[in-house]
Amino acid sequence: MAEYEYGRIQRLADSLEQAGIPADVAEQIMEGGEDIEKAAPPKRKADWFRVAMERMDTLLDLPTRQAVRESCACCLGGKRLKLSKAIAKEHATLEERIAAANETPYVFGYSVTREEDGSIVVRFAPEGEPSYRCVCLPKAEEPISITYCMCCGGHIKHHLQIALGHKLAQVPRVTALSSGGTQPCTFAYTLVD
Fold first, then answer.
1. Lowest CB count within 10 Å: 22, 86, 128, 162, which one?
2. Burial annotation 12-34 (CB, 10 A radius, 16+ → b, else e)
């Protein structure tokens, strides 16, 4: 497989390979990625990812896309990991752990709440703001498939599983990228065990 200068593109290529995606399919998804340099303008990076995610949406089923993108998650260690482990250690019940996660914006963003259906919803910002921006692709001028955002959802899933002591399944709802900046990043998680 080709080498890519821009780290996020290389991480996607590595994740496709680790997931066992056939080389011809991965090459279609990664087309043009080798032309995106680390110093490329942020808009160019966002435009490439928009097209690459459209290709993934066409070529891969949802569970595969989700697994590939979740494995691209960053910020899995360091202070965030320490805080997630502290929540699990210092709080006994699931409800207490959710409340503690809600008070840990450095890891989980704006809010962590439990809905009536039992799902756990994580929001990165309050609803009702005039606009929202993605920190990963801040110069995206057009909506990008929520497939891209499953990476961030994987980051949350990693830390929330540790904090809550339960395996989770991710259900991305809407993001700043997928909504064209009109809604906050919102992910739902269901308990698997």
1. 128
2. bbebbeeeebeeeebeebbeebe
Mean per-residue pLDDT, 91-105: 97
State the number of CA atoms in the 13 A half-sphere of 136 facing the CB.
25
CB 91 within 8 A of CB 114: no
- The whole-model pTM stands at 0.93
CA 14 – CA 34 distance, rounded (Å): 13
Note the pLDDT of residue 1. 62
Instruction: From 104, 76, 72, 75, select the one nearest 88 (Cα to Cα).
Output: 104
Structure-token pair, residue 19? 């997931």
Distances (CA, A) of 142 to 24, 115, 134: 28, 31, 12
Compute the distance between CA of residue 107 and CA of residue 104 in angstroms, rounded to an integer. Answer: 6
